[in-house]
Amino acid sequence: MSNPISSEINFDENGKHTGYLRLPHSVHRSAYGWIPIPVASIRNGDGPAVLISAGNHGDEYEGQIIVASLIREIEADMVRGQLILLPMANYPAAQAGLRTSPLDDGNLNRCFPGNPSGTPTQIIADYIENILLARADYLVDIHSGGSSLLYDGGNMLALSPRSPDEEVKVKGMLAAFGLPKAFLHAPNPVNISAAARRQGAISILTELGGAGMSERSLIDQGRQGLLNFLGYLGVLQGDLVPAGPPATTRFLRVEGKHHYVYTRDDGLYEPLAALGQRVAQGQPAARIHFPETPWREPIALYFEGNGEVACKRVQASVRRGDCIYQLADDDREHQR
Q1: Per-residue model confidence as pLDDT tens digits over 30-40
Q2: Homologous superfamily assigned to 6-253
């Protein structure tokens, strides 16, 4: 079955074009309605094709602001190749300010490769992977920690390279983007990075703060990094390209389950480590308190590995299975 989404713009045309991807959606209030997913194409001749998306999770705001700004600022004569920009990739989730879609509870970044005859989120995932990423050489997907997580400043993520040559290329791209920290992580077949890899595109993801906020310094940092990255690729030229990246990048790795701390109890968590702090295996990470049964002793959680606190939970209220911390450790291979 072909994907039911139709585009108001022609991605093969040169020039700057804006409009909507129309996802048919028949509901009580609108029998013949469609969901409007905003999109822009800025194309000028030959060169790399880059898909830039935000709003993959609807409660992550810095990226939506950055991508919307670039749609207004970039003109076709600044481009050599093509930029496709999606500021609200999972539009229903972004409109509602939720991580997942209120229409089907779909988490877009767990729905790839999607399904053209599935739920709205599955249809969006199929369109992104098989229509948009099929055209792209590169993907930049801008995330933050959303409502429940807070990252330590500006971070980038990329799939662990499959060869030494790919590692050199990916780390060069991450350094050109230039956020303070970059993590290499194992592939997850249901997220957009894996979708990009299946379509032959190289992907970079960001994690800019979080806690349901939009932080000005992170918006500026992410914008500068993205513009410098586009200049590095040669797809963007002119005055918008900055003089360099916003920072010198440290390379780190998120290596496995020992870099995460989860609670096995419902309660209120008391953090015992701060963002950016260096911690060691066996060190106390948090205590889970039980105000409903205040005579019960708190339960201690411990770090299972060494590393730096890259991300922590925002809400004090926790349920069994909630992630409290994510660690990252220095990429020693890069340092040698």
Answers
A1: 999 999 999 99
A2: Zn peptidases (3.40.630.10)
